[in-house]
Amino acid sequence: MEKSGVSMALAQQRMGNITAIEELREGHEFLLKSAEKYPNRIVPSTLVNPMIKESIVECDKRLKTGVFKGIKAWPMSDYPIDSEIMDPVMKLCEKHRTPLRVHSDLEDPRSTPYAIGDLAARFPKVPVVIVHAPNEKVLSPLACVKVARKHDNVYLETTGWCPSSQIEAAIRELGAERVIWGTDAPWSAFTIELAKVEVMRLTRREKERYLGLNFAEMIGVKPS
Amino acid sequence: MSAIIDAHTHIGHDIGGGYSQSKEQLLTKLVKAEVDRAVICSFPYPGQNVRESNDFMAKSQDKRLIGFGTIYPRSEDAPAEVERCVQKLGLAGLMVDVEASCLVGATWGAMIELPVINSFFKAAAKSGVPLLIHMRNPFSIWPTPGLAHFLRRMAKRHPTLPIITNTLLPGLSAALESPNVYIETEYSGMPVDFERYMALTGTGRILFASNAPIEHPYVMRRIVEHSVLTEEGRNQVLSENITKLLKL
Asked: In chain B, whose CA is at the least distance from the CA of A165?
């Protein structure tokens, strides 16, 4: 972050099929310590697995502190994102006025952009972020853009294998207010994701929105 | 370091995906990326008039742009078009797009003995230029481990034919057992992918490639530069491997 001039980052624990509440708690504790060590630089995110009932209580407890921002869902733990099992999670997002971020994959029925759109439609007050979109490798950019165009509370986050051409096309289609920059570090690197911004034809205002303001406003933080 | 070459770009219009890129736009990107030369291919699509596309590639070639011809291997004219591309048009390589050219049989295994496919591969091997097996989307339903099996068999059957595959193909490690199979960095959207390639092959069979206009060569260069490479490895990936393949 220092080297690349990035002031703040949302950090989450490792994904994977986490089935034990202890593992989730441990991940949250680690994130909390990191955030305490680097205040105003590292913002911790909660991770939920709605298949583990206690994880809702765990997320609620963390969000109440005001330190944790947002809830991340990873439907590859084997739950369909548009099912009722997600309702308590969405109610939690409403309660804390915080976004839901969802790992997405066009070929996985549990987490297609369409399924995420259906969930967003049932909870229009909750900002819902499609993570790894628009992404040619895994997702159809048309699907993500179409879903975001249909639902005002859907946002696209470009972490992952998103080519610069498709990110730029999404910004043209939806406006810079609906697209969020990210790296998924350590999978990608700050320098690489910033290089993509460098080659995109964006105005200064569009860059500011995409690189930070959109997400900072969404989670209610002021970048240092 | 000798000339840096982007081993996979496109010019023209992409009927299927809506992309387009002129020769001038590509050249501007190469300057920004400090890349000296680029391989240019058509945007493949089903029903494409490959003769016209190949004529266009031949006209677009210059000292910076190196043309590859597009071939439909299922066409009975494929061997003749291979010869025309290399002998008459002076194109430096061949490209087969898996989806656009309907290079799909009941199974990939069954394709190995299909006479029309074998006629094409014989002609390609005879031509002395590399063959790029191109996939629009490596996560589509066509690039299965069976395709890696098919490429492995074809590579073994034609050991003088360099075969370049451009994806995170499932079963790629099996295809790479043939030393004439190469991989290019398109779709290595993250350094982790690139490092996975290196673990599979070392750096002697990896080719720097952006797939512009999908990705900018400047971004793909940052990915290569970010990866853990020795000076020698970097030279191989950015320049030496493709230079040898194209006999430049």
From this structure: B214
